[in-house]
Write a structure and sequence with these properties.
Elements lengths: L2 H7 L3 E2 L3 E5 L5 H8 L16 H16 L3 E8 L4 E12 L4 E8 L8 H15 L5 E7 L3 H9 L3 E12 L2 E11 H7 L1
Parallel strand pairs: 5-6
Antiparallel strand pairs: 1-2, 2-3, 3-4, 4-5, 6-8, 7-8
Helix pairs in contact: 2-3
Length: 189
């Protein structure tokens, strides 16, 4: 597994409809436009943004995790509009076991269009083909059917429910665990 490659090359991806590039503080205004939506943030760890300062704080936290090599967050940019519409990330690197986790958040305006799936597939390809990962995991709250649908569409397999696995907004949430293995990815190609 080559985590160093991710953090030294800072890869940029282009898909049919999207550009994926490293999130930056200059994205604050466009990030705020969807992060301030309480429905969009219902199933993420952070609360909806009440001010642009909340967005700057989150983007600063993301940058600190990048510098510590704990996570890499790409901004999802809609090609036709040229606007930031979400983020997708790799995090939770386990170099001993060649594993990482993928996560995503998308503007509600762009839900149910296959965008989170398209962005996630680019990261899965990179993870297996360039980083040498053996396993990529994803989790979602039990009630988050939209994210579960994305995980299924990108070839992940359901492994089970992690009961009260995470505390979000002062409430324990059970999460569904999905994964895809390197061999499954290459078999499906």
């Amino acid at each position: 597994m080559n985590v160093e490659k991710l953090f030294t090359t800072e890869p940029i991806f282009e898909t049919n409809r999207l550009y994926l590039r490293k999130l930056a503080s200059s994205d604050a205004e466009q990030f705020y436009s969807f992060a301030s939506d309480p429905l969009m943030t219902e199933h993420v760890r952070w609360d909806y943004h009440r001010s642009i300062e909340d967005t700057f704080a989150l983007l600063n936290s993301i940058e600190q995790k990048f510098k510590a090599r704990q996570s890499f967050n790409w901004g999802i940019v809609d090609k036709p509009l040229g606007n930031l519409i979400g983020r997708v990330c790799l995090f939770g690197f386990d170099e001993e076991n060649d594993m990482a986790e993928i996560g995503f958040a998308l503007s509600r305006e762009f839900w149910n269009r296959g965008i989170a799936s398209e962005a996630s597939k680019a990261l899965i390809e990179y993870g297996f083909e360039e980083m040498g990962l053996n396993r990529i995991e994803a989790r979602c709250n039990v009630a988050n059917l939209g994210s579960e649908k994305v995980m299924q569409k990108i070839g992940m397999k359901f492994e089970g429910v992690l009961r009260n696995q995470i505390k979000m907004k002062n409430e324990y949430k059970s999460q569904k665990l999905y994964s895809i293995l390197r061999q499954e990815y290459f078999d499906a190609k």
